[in-house]
Design brief:
It contains 5 helices and 9 strands. By secondary structure, the protein is α+β, with helices and mostly antiparallel strands.
Length: 196
């Protein structure tokens, strides 16, 4: 997250942020339970001593599989972040090399939140898909995707609304068929003074 915050301009401030959900470690818990069951099965079901060479290989293989899954998810959990600022949407992932996705909020066309299973909804994590004019990016297993997308939608609407309010030129059809600029009527503003 510090990487994204360090790349903000002077007039930007963060509006919403999210990262990978800690529920991505549920797979490791399940693998640990299964591997623990396999080891317990060997422990209680074997007739020969457990200090044999084969058993050390089984224990080492189970531990290695668990550590590989765990280290990949820890790296993904630590390195992935999404950020909405007053003007931009930013994404960063830096497991080995830094991958950054950055777009202006007015370029976002659609935001989709997808809960794949009932467990995703129960633990409040899911996939966020953001469609821009040129690309479609999917961010998997993000924490609180509905809250994040609501804040992103709100800020994107604010940016779009402020851009359309700045355009005040209106055109009408003139008597000779050409377009002419229609002047806006002057607004009378009276000064309000406080009477004692």
């Amino acid at each position: 997250m510090n990487y994204l915050l360090s790349h903000l301009t002077a007039n930007e401030r963060p509006i919403a942020k999210t990262r990978k959900s800690a529920c991505i470690f549920l797979r490791e818990v399940l693998v640990l339970i299964i591997l623990g069951g396999v080891i317990a099965g060997f422990f209680f079901g074997m007739k020969w001593p457990l200090a044999s060479k084969e058993m050390y290989m089984v224990y080492g293989g189970c531990g290695l599989v668990f550590l590989v899954f765990l280290s990949l998810n820890i790296a993904s959990f630590i390195s992935t972040a999404l950020l909405v600022t007053t003007h931009k949407f930013m994404y960063k992932e830096d497991i080995v090399a830094i991958k950054v996705f950055d777009t202006q909020l007015q370029n976002i066309d659609a935001i989709e939140v997808d809960y794949k299973t009932i467990f995703h909804r129960m633990f409040n994590y899911g996939h966020i898909t953001i469609s821009t004019r040129n690309t479609k990016q999917t961010f998997k297993n993000m924490s609180h995707p509905d809250l994040f997308s609501a804040r992103l939608n709100k800020q994107s609407a604010k940016v779009s609304d402020s851009r359309t309010r700045r355009v005040n030129v209106t055109f009408g059809i003139g008597p000779n068929g050409g377009a002419k600029r229609v002047a806006r009527p002057p607004v009378n503003v009276k000064a309000v003074t406080k009477k004692n």
